Amino acid sequence: MKKILLFFIAITFVFANNNSDVNTSEEIKKLKNEIEKLKENNKDTENMDYNGLDGNMKKEIDEYALNLSQKIDILKDKMKTRYKLGNFTSAGESFLESLEDDDNRFKFGIMNKTILNKNSYKNNTDFFFVKNINNDGNIFGVGIYGGYSNSKYKKHTAKDLHGLDIGVILEGELPEYGLKIISMNEFNKDFKINEYYSSNSIIGGVGLMYKKEFGSLFYVEPMAFMLYGSNIDTNLKFNDTNVLIKNNFMYNAGVNLKLGLENEVGKNIYNFYIESSFDKKIKKDNNLIFKFKDKERYSTVALANDINLDLGLGLDILLNKEHRLHIDGGIGLIPTEKVYKIGASYELLK
User: Fold this and answer.
1) What is the dihedral of CA 97, 269, 328, 125, to 10 degrees?
2) 10 vs 28, 35, 216, 248, CA distance in Å?
3) Following CA atoms 316, 318, 319, 321 in sequence, which dihedral angle do they give, to the nearest 10 degrees?
4) What's the whole-model pTM score?
5) What is the pLDDT at residue 103?
6) pLDDT tens readout for residues 197-224
7) Are residue 15 and residue 90 in the same domain, yes or no?
8) Are 134 and 95 in contact (CB under 8 A)?
């Protein structure tokens, strides 16, 4: 209706411009003003200028975007810790070992990942269970994991953000090629106590690792990976108006390079490494739909952490081929506001 009205006013304006005897210059100015107002109202109905949003709304949305970006970053760090510990055996040797071992093979453990700096922190703890399947010497694992996370972003709302996650692990080893494949996909639910805030999302990724040994100690392990994050629905509230954010998807591609020393002494394995990873978001914008009570409005928000560059190191100890202890640490050099990373895990292999 507004577009039709705009059309008729434009026609009127043209007519007025060609009939100076009928319309005065003041009337023409009034018509021009009406046209500009209608254009602005029509634009505001269809979209929202992000920079012009309410300050509290921007804080919530920026926090939401950063939280989703950091969840993807933590998932990347989870995947990186699932590397092959020890030397690859041939498919034939692995198959013979499976015939000699009648017990079901499984992995059970706990994993913690933390991202922090002076303005924010995010801590995530997961329990996981993986069942191994030996298929003609190629080892595959299927498992589940779940846990809790807590975050606070002082530059945004400075309120505790709680999260629950549950996911699926798929991994496989191809000994003949020195390859390991890992995929993790999880559902996340974030909420705030005594606040009108709820956000549901799905994140996941897949990685391919290649381990090349040089001598009895030194090895190199490059890894290529892809990550994604998709918002299902996010409910926020501003100025007594309920807002439902939808239509949001982001994905990353990157590489990781690990240089390590590994030594097997009896039934124990000791592993130390340094690594560097780089990833970039392929999708540039965070397109959002704001569903207000009476209308829909659209906005585009810049993605948090478009590029990530990390440096890190880690230590792994496998005792009696059953108890795996892992610690790692690192620093995120890009984005400009540096973050520190700490990780630890315990895994029982049976």
Assistant:
1) 50
2) 11, 7, 81, 37
3) 180
4) 0.81
5) 43
6) 889 999 999 999 999 999 889 999 999 9
7) no
8) yes
236 and 302 within one domain: yes
Which residues of the chain are under the pLDDT cut of 70?
A: 1-52, 89-104, 238-243, 246-247, 284-296, 298-305, 336
3-state secondary structure of 47: strand
Distance CA 156, CA 57 (A): 10
Determine if the peptide bond prior to 175 is cis (ω within 30°): no
pLDDT of 188: 97
Question: What pLDDT does residue 28 have?
Answer: 66
Helices 25-46/2-17 angle, 10° precision: 160
- Structural domain of 206: 54-349
- Coil, strand, or helix at residue 178? coil
Residues 121 and 206 in one domain: yes
Q: For residue 168, what is the domain's CATH number?
A: 2.40.128.130
Spacing of C-alpha 161 from chain mean position: 16
Give the three-class secondary structure for 24.
Answer: coil
> Same structural domain for residues 6 and 138?
no
Evaluate whether 165 touches 190 at the Cβ level (below 8 Å): no
**Same domain? 38 vs 58:** no
Note the pLDDT of residue 149: 98
Could you give the 3-state DSSP secondary structure of residue 45?
A: helix
Distance CA 221, CA 53 (A): 46
Counted domains in the chain: 2
Cβ neighbours for 245, distance < 8 A, ≥ 6 positions apart: 61, 64, 231, 233, 234, 235, 236, 288, 289, 290, 291
Sign of the torsion angle spanned by Cα atoms 148, 154, 155, 159 = positive
**What span, in angstroms and rounded, lies between the C-alpha atoms of 138 and 329?**
31
Give residue 15's pLDDT. 44
Is 310 exposed, middle or buried (CB count within 10 Å of its CB: 0-12, 13-18, 19+)? buried
Query: What are phi and psi for residue 157, nearest 5 degrees?
Result: -95, -20
The pLDDT score that the predictor gives to residue 135 is 79
Q: So what's the pLDDT on residue 180? A: 95
Q: Quick one: 145 and 264 in the same domain?
A: yes
